[in-house]
Write a structure and sequence with these properties.
four-stranded antiparallel β-sheet, disordered C terminus, about 30% strand
């Protein structure tokens, strides 16, 4: 079910339909997006295909704050899109060849019993220390839901 919440967000999945560690591939606008719930309850949204060789990430595994691609076990931080494995262990020359290997991340919030995403990915880089209202709102809503 896709329903506008205002501000560009679309309700895509009832909150109760996504347990910790689960992912679902959904449609939002013209994009296919994977929506997942981390084990701490945080809801995340990211592109459905691995940037390495386009494997379906919904077949992967959530590990901490990362998605582990089932094909070659490339891992991406689902909050920033950064490749967390194997890029950091590559020699410098190899890192330079694949430095643009990033997973597109979509703004996501959880409110009023719904998970809602913006149908366009973040533009540019999403950093851990960047002020990110959407992620903070999602975490606050998720933690208040568990209380």
């Amino acid at each position: 079910m896709e329903q506008s919440t205002g501000g560009g967000y679309l309700n895509v999945l009832a909150s109760g339909d996504l347990e910790p560690g689960q992912m679902r591939e959904i449609s939002a606008g013209t994009h296919r997006i994977v929506v997942g719930r981390l084990y701490d309850g945080t809801v995340v949204a990211f592109a459905p295909s691995c940037p390495h060789e386009a494997a379906p990430l919904v077949q992967g595994t959530i590990r901490g704050g990362s998605i582990d691609c089932s094909r070659h076990h490339y891992m991406f931080d689902v909050r920033t899109g950064e490749n967390t494995f194997p890029l950091p262990i590559y020699p410098a020359w190899k890192r330079a060849q694949v430095s643009d290997l990033r997973l597109p991340i979509f703004p996501v919030i959880e409110r009023d019993g719904w998970i809602a995403v913006e149908p366009e990915p973040y533009q540019g880089r999403v950093d851990d220390d960047q002020e990110n209202t959407e992620l903070k709102d999602s975490e606050q809503t998720s933690s208040s839901r568990r209380d």
